[in-house]
From TrEMBL:
Keywords: Signal, Transport. PANTHER family: ABC TRANSPORTER GLUTAMINE-BINDING PROTEIN GLNH, AMINO ACID ABC TRANSPORTER PERMEASE. It comes from the Bacteria. Residues 1-19 form the signal peptide. This is Transporter substrate-binding domain-containing protein. Residues 28-239 form the Ionotropic glutamate receptor C-terminal domain. Residues 28-261 form the Solute-binding protein family 3/N-terminal domain. GO terms for biological process: amino acid transport. GO terms for molecular function: ligand-gated monoatomic ion channel activity. SMART domains: PBPb, PBPe. GO terms for cellular component: extracellular region; membrane; outer membrane-bounded periplasmic space. Pfam families: SBP_bac_3 (PF00497).
Amino acid sequence: MKKILLCLALVASSLFSNSLSEIKNSGVIRVGVFTDQPPFGSYKDGQFEGFEVDFANRIARDIFGQNGGKVEFVPTKAAERIDFLQNNKVDIILATLTITDERSRMVDFSMPYFAVNIGVLTRKDDNIKSVSDLRGRPVLVESGTTGELFFKKEGYTVVECPNSNECYRMLKDNKADAYANDNLIVLAYPVIDRSVSVDIKNLGASDFLGIAVQKGNKELLDVINKELINLSKEGFFRKSFKDTIDPFYKGTAEEKYFLLDDIYSIFG
């Protein structure tokens, strides 16, 4: 009975999603992004910026063509991303959202655009070198992230924190002994603070980031997937990595571990 009700709820929610034609007619596509996770998404001096912001602007440019549509960026937190889609607050989510089986039952994902693993930020003086060193020690996680899912499943002690910057501050204030999130997020902090490190960089199996749309919004999803293939062919991701991501991480994030152009090459 519960499964039937869930299916009915998903079908009902999809009736309220904006179709591709409605988006084109309105001239606006609403995109959920982070505001505090550079270099992917941030909000500074009244402007949204970062890799995923540039990515969203490029998708919108190709969707609207000569009609001159625009992107309405909607700030979101990790735990809000799925809810924003299901309640039609946004048309797409482009906020380092990892593709998982559980999430795929609630939203539809594009083909992946980045590969990630879980990374763990720790205080350098604590000399934490492996995940076993964290057994019995509190680990900071954001609600709704793969880091939370992994450490809860493995029986570790977890402490929730609201966003990446607050998680970092809590770690520095000794509220916990580690902060776990996608490696491309936690790798940013040792660049600006030499008292922390990411010695656990590739925890668990590789995961993949995707663009999410409301369940059943196939026409919009098909356009996004076509766009991903075209952007890969023209070198958009490699250029973005070189221009935006690599400078931010000062060369500590190697593109061969994150980019998926070799996989996209099968589409010709």
